[in-house]
Amino acid sequence: QVQLKESGPGLVQPSETLSLTCTVSGFSLTSYSVSWVRQPSGKGPEWMGRMWYDGDTAYNSALKSRLSISRDTSKNQVFLKMNSLQTDDTGTYYCTRDRPTRPLAYWGQGTLVTVSS
Amino acid sequence: DIQMTQSPSFLSASVGDRVTLSCKASQNINKYLAWYQQKLGEAPKLLIYNANSLQTGIPSRFSGSGSGTDFTLTISSLQPEDVATYFCLQHNSWLTFGSGTKLEIK
Hints:
heterodimer, A: mainly beta, seven-stranded mixed β-sheet, four-stranded antiparallel β-sheet, B: mainly beta, 0% helix, 51% strand, globular
């Protein structure tokens, strides 16, 4: 069964770098893409970027200068790094299984990230 | 970038009502529109993709229609468990979400 689980620090200092890990099971990272989506409390979700099944990456233009997505297929993990965090980066961060014709069909439980000193 | 506008922002309806939610794209997205249901404290759940394709396991009272710039999600007979916020997502050019419609029971 398809599962995704996010992990990482719940609290990040302003101007610091966020590092999150998505561990997947039930599918191969070389067959399916994984996207990161974030959602501020009480607001709509925002697509951040994608690790394609072939190892290529794509980023939301608004975040591209701060964001990096990578993977370790041997560990079934996808990584997100985003630098220069500010308070408006606070929210729940999700990893999702993604296909062009059936987008974001499976979601992790999400991890709350708070940017505060 | 493509912008997605949902209406209304808030909707209150009675159990058994037929409910219609709207989503408009700022430019042509063909059929590449998905709908998600998000209950309080949970991750969004995919209901509809490619405008009118029902995701596996989703009740048939949910249906989607539209193409180009105008899309609709219809719940044919509202149930208490349908209380949630509904988001649309365009997947024609990267991915952009709408701001959501919060649905409550009257």
